[in-house]
Amino acid sequence: MRALFRRRTLTALTASAAIALIATACTGQSTGGEDGSASGQDVTITFWHGWTQDNEVKAIEANVAAFEKAHPNIHVKVVGNITDDKSEQALRAGGSDAPDVVSSFTTDQVGKFCSAKVWADLNPFLQKSGIDPAKTFSTAMLKYSQYEGNQCSLPLLGDAYGLFYNKAAFAAAGITAPPKTFSEFDADAVKLTIAEGDGYKQLGFMPNFHGFETQPARYLGQYGATFFDADGKSTIASDPKVAAMYTWQKNLVAKLGGYDKLEKYRTTFGDEFSAKNPFETGQVAMSFDGEWRTESIAQDGVSLEWATAPFPVPDDQAATYGRGYQTGTIIGIANSSKKQTAAWEFVKFLTTDTDAVVGFANAIHNVPSTNEALNSPKLVADANFKTFIDIAKNPNSSTTPSSINGGAYQLSLQNLGYDIESGRQTDLQAALKATAKEIDAAVAQAK
Q1: Which whole-number Å values give the CA distances from 282 to 5, 192, 271, in the listed order?
Q2: pLDDT > 70: percent of the chain
Q3: Count of domains in the chain?
Q4: Which of 139, 159, 330, 422 stands 20 to 30 A from 267 (CA)?
Q5: Quick one: 28 exposed, middle or buried, by C-beta within 10 A (0-12, 13-18, 19+)?
Q6: What is the pLDDT of residues 238-291, one digit of tens each?
Q7: What is the rounded CA–CA span in Å between residue 289 and residue 298?
């Protein structure tokens, strides 16, 4: 699932890149205005997206066809397999060759696109259409599609993270139910670990930050960390939840054999997005992953008894069990587009029409992004996929907030994690303060 892989890859945008974007982007008000489509004039808009797999392309084309049938005077020119870099360059340049509507797999783009005003603020469109975004979209998904009040994008399907576990391995270890708290999780991870020589026959869980999907920001989703305060300053040094996460991860690394031993074992893993994924091969008994894995396991045809559950939470937050980290696809309108009336009708259809959202989610096995779609009887969800639907509905689920310099602050958290888990950094509080200072400086430089 290459398109899904691109969406889940952490965006490490530097402050200098963000500054370049802002300096060259259109920073004025929307030039769209009325394009005549509302009065029945024929209008053709261009839509860029990044999906490439056959089922994904067919699904988006089916929604385009449904939209054109409902709006016979609006025609959509679809261009697929577009990378974020190419979209960014086109949005910065503007002109007749730029797209009118763009989707992106990277929610980290929102902050810089909103602040640079290369995507139009959709608040006026939402208000005119009588759409209350807070009532329409999942809370976490809505949060990652806006920046400082500018709703320059909307969610278009989402991803939710949870726990995958090997049922046969659980039974062999005498574990009767998935863990709900980190103390239970740690104990289970140890029970499920089977040593072999100087390595492992089976590892209970791979906690290292170089592991698949185990990034600090995603772990912090289980803690409910805030990342920034109301003034936009980093809170990682002042929020005790951040220190608690790094401490928990470091301790679990030690319980499972230590950083070096785990890293050596990690090098034996196959490709994450193949049947050689270590959870699918049985090399690890528990995995932190997203809803896409449910379909991957089915497609890979591996012999595996497995199930899903929400990922555990800190013991002192046991009442929040069921929460999870969320991200997903976003869609917006180019600020330079002169066909924004038609473009909005298309965006509104893709993001708020329940049948369109549910049909798309069913086709590409992602989590729906509207509350109505999450509760639709047409949504195809077996017990394992339903875990992620419930995570998306959970009011405690969270995401990483938008930043003017994209995912640079997440990269700082990742680099800090590498230093802590490997032992290169032993003073956690000092490291958190230094990293918070680094994040604040990068944000200030990007403004």
Answers
A1: 22, 11, 14
A2: 93
A3: 2
A4: 159
A5: exposed
A6: 999 999 999 999 999 999 999 999 999 999 999 999 999 999 999 999 999 999
A7: 15
- In angstroms, the Cα distances linking 227 to 152, 162, 235 are 21, 21, 5
Q: Are 359 and 240 within one domain?
A: no
β-sheet bridge partners, residue 202:
194
Strand partners, 159: 327
Q: Which of 296, 320, 344 is the last residue of a domain?
A: 320
Dump pLDDT digits (tens) for 294-312.
999 999 989 999 999 999 9
Same domain? 269 vs 305: yes
- The residue written with tokens 């200030």 in the block is 444
Phi, psi of 24, rounded to the nearest 5 degrees: -105, -10
Please state which of the ranges 26-40, 120-134, 138-152 shows the lowest mean pLDDT.
Answer: 26-40
Q: Which residues contact 127 (CB under 8 A, 6 or more apart)?
A: none
Nearest Cα to 205, choosing from 133, 294, 279? 279
